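Anyone up for a design puzzle?
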């Protein structure tokens, strides 16, 4: 985007940016960690299983060099000998190769985890561009790789020289030892040299791993404008979100107004609040608020109630208490049971009186509704 040009990438990458980068195969990787893991584990594997591999190879060679005339000219018998020799050598070699495979897998996935991405494997023309190649040759990454190579050569040469100098006595000892003792001794020295030289490369790994993590985080950094754009994409633009909330409120209000005809009574604070209550003993354990509103919405509730012949009773303290203490589709609080029961009894008696079946009830204004102090508003 044009508006992002010239802005510095100073902000840490967001979780979404990191997830997108991972989907593209952009994860921190350390080739040094993978290669050193294979070298060290390979040296250990040779120390553990090298003797069995050597014995298997010597036994195979001894068998091949002592074949009898019958074994040479009998194809079936010769095939069995060859298959047996291969099997005899395969198992110790398989142990070494299995350890190398596990070491390579762990070393490659230890930093950045396991990640498969078709996009990263897809050929890109930009990678074949001579200009891009020149930039990579003289870029920061190339300089770091050059320094790592110099450090590795220096480490290997220095450690090798130190080991040879410190083991010069063992070298002299090899001259006076008898075969095959001197051969085994030389192999032990060689394996120890290999293991120690491989372990010395852990210094390079200790430098490379933090650098790869830092470089990865630096490449993913974002500008302030990119963070704003991402927030808009994920959360939505403020005006769109406001429109959605308005539509949601309108839908909720329509659903609420559709429930008003099911109410038994509408309690009002004549100027500001209206609360519609329903009580059906078959489905409700206590009176339930099916609609409530203030100001304009309170007027609309009263209008719908009047259209459906729902009793509208002015009871300001009770209307305010129910309005502030109860949400839609919730039962009224325990503290208001007595007041609401008294109100419903009044409504029932009033309906009976209007039908000519009873005497006129005492005006609700003359009655003292029991509303707890903590619920009064």
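Challenge accepted. My sequence:
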């Amino acid at each position: 985007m044009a508006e992002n040009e010239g802005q510095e990438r100073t902000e840490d990458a967001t979780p979404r940016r990191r997830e997108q980068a991972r989907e593209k195969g952009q994860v921190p990787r350390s080739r040094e960690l993978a290669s050193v893991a294979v070298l060290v584990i390979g040296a250990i594997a040779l120390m553990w299983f090298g003797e069995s591999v050597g014995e298997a190879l010597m036994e195979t060679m001894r068998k091949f060099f002592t074949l009898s005339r019958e074994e040479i000219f009998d194809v079936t018998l010769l095939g069995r000998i060859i298959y047996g020799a291969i099997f005899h050598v395969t198992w110790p070699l398989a142990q070494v190769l299995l350890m190398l495979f596990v070491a390579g897998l762990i070393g490659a996935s230890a930093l950045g985890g396991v990640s498969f991405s078709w996009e990263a494997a897809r050929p890109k023309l930009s990678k074949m561009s001579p200009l891009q190649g020149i930039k990579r040759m003289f870029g920061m990454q190339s300089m770091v790789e050059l320094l790592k190579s110099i450090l590795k050569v220096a480490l290997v040469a220095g450690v090798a020289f130190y080991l040879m100098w410190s083991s010069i006595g063992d070298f002299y000892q090899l001259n006076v030892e008898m075969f095959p003792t001197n051969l085994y001794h030389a192999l032990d020295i060689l394996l120890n040299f290999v293991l120690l030289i491989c372990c010395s490369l852990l210094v390079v790994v200790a430098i490379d791993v933090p650098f790869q993590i830092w470089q990865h985080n630096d490449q993913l950094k974002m500008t302030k404008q990119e963070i704003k754009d991402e927030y808009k994409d994920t959360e939505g633009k403020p005006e769109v979100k406001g429109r959605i909330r308005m539509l949601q409120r309108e839908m909720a209000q329509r659903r609420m107004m559709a429930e008003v005809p099911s109410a038994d009574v509408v309690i009002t604070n004549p100027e500001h609040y209206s609360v519609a209550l329903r009580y059906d003993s078959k489905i409700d354990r206590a009176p339930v608020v099916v609609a409530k509103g203030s100001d304009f919405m309170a007027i609309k509730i009263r209008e719908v109630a009047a259209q459906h012949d729902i009793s509208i009773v002015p009871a300001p303290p009770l209307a305010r208490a129910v309005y502030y203490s109860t949400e839609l589709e919730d039962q009224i609080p325990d503290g208001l049971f007595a007041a609401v029961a008294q109100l419903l009894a009044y409504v029932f008696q009033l309906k009976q009186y209007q039908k000519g079946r009873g005497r006129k009830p005492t005006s609700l204004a003359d009655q003292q509704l029991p509303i707890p102090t903590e619920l009064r508003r």
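A detail worth pointing out: The mean pLDDT is 79.
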